[in-house]
Amino acid sequence: MPSDTEDRERDVPDGFQLEWVDESTLRGSLPWELVAPADSKPCRWSHGGVRCAEPSVARLDRGEKGPQWWHYCASHLFGRRINEGRIECQILVPVPEGTPDA
Ligand SMILES: [Zn+2]
Q1: pLDDT tens digits, one per residue of 72-85
Q2: Measured between alpha carbons, how far is 102 from 99 in angstroms, rounded to an integer?
Q3: CA nearest 83: which of 59, 58, 54?
Q4: Assigned domain for 4 exists
């Protein structure tokens, strides 16, 4: 099952770069939680009708009338990653002045 993040670097506009941040610090962040290995469930990601089913590392509350947790594996966190016990996502930030083009 391919990861959902592979082509992300390609979409960065000129003058910007991607930076990893702790998602819980962002306004409007989604209700993600880390999942301990003992609480792991099969990943909900599906592609072409095929479920991933790898053991989950995090879960997202998709419930509208109370919690309804959907579990996802490390490859399918919708562009997020787990780093030092935090769920991180990438945001676009302007490249600082004087930085040579990469
Ligand atoms: Zn998965």
Answers
A1: 999 999 999 999 99
A2: 8
A3: 58
A4: no
pTM of the shown model: 0.79
Flag whether 26 is in a domain: yes
- The Å distance, Cα 102 to ligand 1 centre, comes to 31
How many other C-beta atoms lie within 10 A of the C-beta of residue 58? 22
Range of the domain at 80: 14-93
H/E stretch holding 69: strand 69-72
Q: How far apart are the CA of 27 and the centre of ligand 1, in A?
A: 26
Taking the centre of ligand 1 as the mean of its atom positions, its distance from the CA of residue 91, in whole angstroms, is 22
Around ion ligand 1, residues with a beta carbon closer than 5 Å are 43, 45, 52, 54, 73, 76
C-alpha 17 to ligand 1 mean position (Å) = 26
Closest by CA position to 72, among listed 30, 35, 21, 26: 35
